[in-house]
Amino acid sequence: MDINAESKVGQVAAHYPMATRVFARHGIDFCCGGGKALREVCEKRDLSTTQILEEIDQVLSSDPGETETWNEAPVVDLVRHIIESYHQPLREELPRLESMVRKVVRVHRDRNPERLDALLKTFLRLEAELQEHMTEEEDVLFPEIILHGEASSPTEPFVDDHRVVGEALAELRRLTDDYVVPEGACNTWRALWFGLAELEQSLHQHIHLENNILFARVNAA
Ligand SMILES: [Fe+2]
Ligand SMILES: [Fe+2]
After folding, report:
1. Which numbered ligand comes closest to the C-alpha of 82?
2. Structural domain span for residue 187
3. Are residues 22 and 131 part of one domain?
4. What distance in Å separates the CA atoms of residue 166 and residue 39, rounded to the nearest whole number?
5. Angle formed by the axes of helices 187-208 and 156-175, nearest 10°
6. 61 CA distance to ligand 2 middle (Å)
7. 8 three-state secondary structure
8. Interior angle at CA 197, CA 193 and CA 201, nearest 5
9. C-alpha of residue 108 to centroid of ligand 2, in Å
10. Total of domains in the chain
11. Which pLDDT tens digit goes with each residue over 67-116?
12. Cys-Cys with 168: which of 4, 124, 126, 217 at CB 3.0–4.6 Å?
C-alpha cells in the first residue's frame, strides 16, 4: 500500500511496523485511533502531516530490514507472541509501576496533591482494567482462536476495553505533561515517568496487534 495523508493510521502500522516508531515519537495513537486518517490525527495533535509523512519515509528507507508484519504468520503464532511479549511482561510491570506511583505520591504529594492523586487513581483504574481484560482474552477469546482459527465470541467488547485503556493512557500523558520530568524530581520519580512512557508505547503496540491485525484477521476468516 502507498502511504498518504488519507491513509488510515492502523493500516499504515499493520503494513509498515517501522512507521509505529514515528507514531510513538509524536504520541500518535495508532491502535484505538487506528481507523482515523493520518491527516486527521495530525491535525488533532497539531502536527504537520507533511512532516510526519517525511519521517515515515525516512524510517522506512533507513531500515528496510525490519519489515516483518503479522499479516501473514499463522494466527496461533500471533496469539502466542501477544501472550509472551505483552501479557506476561505486563503482569510483572504493572505491580512494579504501582509501587512506584504509590511511593512518589506518598513522598511528593505536597508538590501537587490534585494531580498526583489523579495520577494514582488513573493508574490503579488502568491496572485493574488490564488485569481483568488480559485474563478474559486468555480464558475466552484466545483459546477459541487457537482451536478454530476464528472467534465465536464477538471481538467488539474487547475493542471497547481497548478504548478505555487508550483513554486512561491519554489521561496519564496529560497528568505527566507528556512525560517531561519535573524539575528537582528524585530518581524514583524519573524512573516512574520513564516506566509509564514505556508502558504507553508497549500498550499501543499490543492493542494495535489485537485490534488492527488479530481481530481483523479472525473476523475476516
Ligand atoms: Fe491483550
Ligand atoms: Fe486486548
Report:
1. 1
2. 75-220
3. no
4. 20
5. 150
6. 31
7. strand
8. 170
9. 33
10. 2
11. 467 888 899 999 999 999 999 999 999 999 999 999 999 999 999 999 99
12. 126
